[in-house]
Amino acid sequence: MRKDAVSYEIGKFESLMVSLRYLDLAKEDFDKGGLLFQAKRVKKAYKLVKEDLRLLMYRCDKRYLEDIAYFLFHVEDWFAVYNKFTFGKNLLDPVKLNLMEGMREYPEEWIRKIKEEFDAPNWNHEEVKW
């Protein structure tokens, strides 16, 4: 089943929330060990979140396209750093994946906001509010 079909089946926002939780867990694990195999998990999680956001950006209130675009810029910057510093390394090698000057930081505040809104009572998960 294609990812967009899966997203539709389990709900537009549920898919994003699951992907964000997966990303949180992958980042926590990488922060503890800093090894390439852990960085690969973060990369996979970012790909899932990126795909969910790509699907949602066509349905959201147009005021929030900038927030989504900035998150996607962060993901692209992170991938560039990943590609630069992991080339030729083994799975158990330590890696440092710090963003370089001018790159977009992870949008903590925006992610916190959409997670809070998603968990709010009486929030219709089929309607984009952000």
Automatic annotation (TrEMBL):
The lineage of its organism: Bacteria, Pseudomonadati, Bacteroidota, Cytophagia, Cytophagales. This is Uncharacterized protein.
